Amino acid sequence: MDKKGHSGFRVPDGYFDQFQARMEHQFKASEGEKLPKDAGFRVPEAYFDTLGERLQQRLEAPRGRTRNLWTTYLGWAAAAAAGLLLAISLWPVQEALTPGFSDLAGTEIEHYLDVRYENLSSYELAESLPLENLAMSDLLEDAPAETQILDYLDRENPTYDDYYLDNDE
To answer: pTM to 2 decimals?
Structure first.
């Protein structure tokens, strides 16, 4: 076949339109001729008389050694499936490795800040931190009570005037 669906043979256009009528006409025209009795095939005499006995003998005859290939393939396929299932079940499950803030150690954060902000004063460092979206609860796990804050301020802060007065006076 040179192309898909084409065998290379061609039939004239309209060949099958009147096919049945032409066949009947040819058959009636050759009616005077008899069909040959021998169609080319011959069966030995008494062939069908002994056919049943011969078939029975073949069925009763011992068969040679047979090898069933399906059981071999089925066993190998089952072993491969079991091995694959075992490998999948024992494969370590790895979640997406997206590091978070909790994955960082305190020393790593300190090292980063030391290297990045090495020449900055503490005031400049405090200015560079984004404090707009931070709350006290973000910085501290347990927020201190109001009395603890007041006690700290009384104990640590000298006076109100020391913060706002210049040293020139």
So the answer is: 0.22
